[in-house]
């Protein structure tokens, strides 16, 4: 098997962690501050595993709370080998993901990183790189992760567990290995982004039209971009975005950019981000390089009051049982990260809706601190990860006191663990079947991990 079975929960955690995309920036940060002497330790066809890759993943897993052990690095390496084998097989089987999906995931992850560090400017200052440069460095990792997810879905997507399998799985866990759960909550939100009035939109458009006239009269585009553009990721570079392929930028922007001759200005273009004035710098095959000035129309106090009123009506409908919170979130929420999950926040460690109280976002914690289970807060101001003004309501769905795992209180979590275990075994079987389909070479220092050992 790909992973030793001496600890059910340990191996599930390692297995899940190595499929988790939250490790991107921490790994990048560790490489920046604590460089590791590097070298190739495993080759699988055209895929490689570096020593730094193993060391960084090991450090992250231990930092996340996993107890270290003599076998932990081998378990991590075995999972990395499985990932690389799936990538090699995906390449052989022509499994691909669309560029648009890669871009969407990059944008989502970058917005998360920005929200964690405070601003795009702080993120750029920390790494001494522009947002565009950071995205370029992470693009291959994101694409590989999405390919891995697709391969994993092909192998395990149809697997399910029955109640009997869940019970049997739980009964196999030694009593002294059952986890002890601290206080956990299920919390949801419905977000409505404030829509600027036509007056504010017209004012933003006019401001950009005036800037365009100044450029046409001879002023420098880059200088005005640094002064007026509300896209901090590009403003410092004079509005330059760098080279992108088709379908990597929003359609309105791309269509306007590709209609231009180098050096020419576009008309003022509106997208989901605001109003753009675009200048094409260069086209190179299927790629194009542009710069832009972005002006975002702001929502006024009246606009935000109307947004709050919409949420008040939604809240009242939920309280009257005219609609469930989950359905209301799916139909009305503007938050893509939670709307398809019943509005519920996900635990970043395992993706479940159960979040330990001490791991909850402090802002949300103080909102729910005085709430009772089942209550929904009044609308309150909120700023989205990409900086848009919004209002949201918060829902406390459940609150579970500290306890040792049991089937009655934790059936969903145990069911998810049983399903993960069954999927992991399917991946083990797939690995054993396909390990000889690629050429694999292992550094002698890691032969003790038995990566080349044929299963009995």
UniProtKB/TrEMBL annotation:
Name of the protein this chain belongs to: Peptidylprolyl isomerase
Keyword Isomerase: yes
GO molecular function: peptidyl-prolyl cis-trans isomerase activity
Secretion signal span: none
Coiled-coil zones: none
Tree of life domain: Bacteria
Domain PpiC: 182-282, 285-395
InterPro entries: OMP_Chaperone_SurA, PPIase_dom_sf, PPIase_PpiC, PPIase_PpiC_CS, Trigger_fact/SurA_dom_sf
Protein keywords: Isomerase, Rotamase, Signal
Keyword Signal among record annotations: yes
């Amino acid at each position: 098997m790909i992973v030793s079975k001496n600890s059910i929960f340990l191996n599930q955690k390692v297995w899940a962690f190595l499929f988790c995309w939250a490790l991107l920036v921490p790994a990048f940060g560790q490489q920046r501050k604590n460089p590791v002497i590097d070298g190739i330790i495993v080759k699988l066809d055209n895929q490689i595993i570096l020593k730094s890759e193993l060391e960084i993943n090991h450090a992250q897993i231990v930092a996340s709370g996993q107890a270290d052990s003599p076998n932990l690095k081998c378990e991590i390496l075995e999972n990395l080998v499985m990932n690389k084998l799936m990538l090699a097989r995906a390449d052989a089987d022509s499994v691909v993901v669309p560029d648009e999906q890669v871009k969407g995931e990059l944008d989502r992850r970058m917005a998360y990183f920005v929200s964690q560090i405070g601003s795009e400017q702080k993120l750029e200052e920390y790494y001494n790189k522009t947002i565009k440069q950071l995205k370029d460095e992470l693009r291959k990792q994101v694409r590989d992760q999405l390919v891995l997810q697709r391969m994993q879905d092909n192998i395990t997507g149809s697997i399910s567990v029955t109640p009997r399998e869940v019970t049997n799985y739980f009964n196999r866990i030694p009593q002294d290995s059952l986890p002890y759960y601290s206080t956990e909550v299920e919390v949801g939100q419905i977000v409505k982004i404030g829509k600027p009035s036509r007056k504010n939109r017209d004012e933003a458009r006019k401001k950009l039209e005036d800037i365009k006239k100044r450029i046409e009269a001879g002023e420098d585009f880059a200088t005005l971009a640094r002064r007026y553009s509300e896209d901090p990721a590009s403003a410092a570079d004079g509005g330059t975005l760098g080279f992108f392929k088709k379908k990597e930028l929003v359609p309105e922007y791309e269509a306007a950019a590709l209609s231009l001759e180098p050096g020419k200005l576009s008309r003022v273009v509106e997208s989901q981000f605001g109003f753009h004035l675009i200048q094409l710098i260069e086209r190179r095959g299927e790629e194009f390089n542009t710069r832009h000035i972005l002006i975002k129309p702001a929502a006024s106090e009246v606009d935000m009051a109307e947004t709050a009123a919409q949420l008040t009506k939604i809240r009242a409908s939920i309280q009257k049982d005219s609609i469930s919170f989950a359905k209301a979130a799916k139909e009305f929420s503007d938050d893509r990260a939670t709307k398809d999950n019943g509005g519920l926040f996900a635990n970043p460690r395992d993706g479940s809706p159960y979040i330990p109280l001490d791991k909850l976002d402090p802002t949300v914690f103080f909102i729910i601190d005085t709430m009772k289970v089942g209550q929904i807060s009044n609308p309150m101001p909120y700023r989205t990860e990409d900086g848009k003004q919004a209002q949201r309501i918060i829902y406390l769905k459940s609150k579970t006191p500290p306890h040792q795992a049991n089937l009655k209180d934790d059936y969903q979590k145990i069911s998810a663990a049983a399903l993960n275990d069954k999927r992991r075994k399917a991946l083990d079987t797939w690995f054993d079947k396909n390990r000889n389909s690629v050429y694999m070479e292992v550094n002698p220092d890691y032969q003790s991990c038995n990566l080349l050992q044929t299963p009995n």
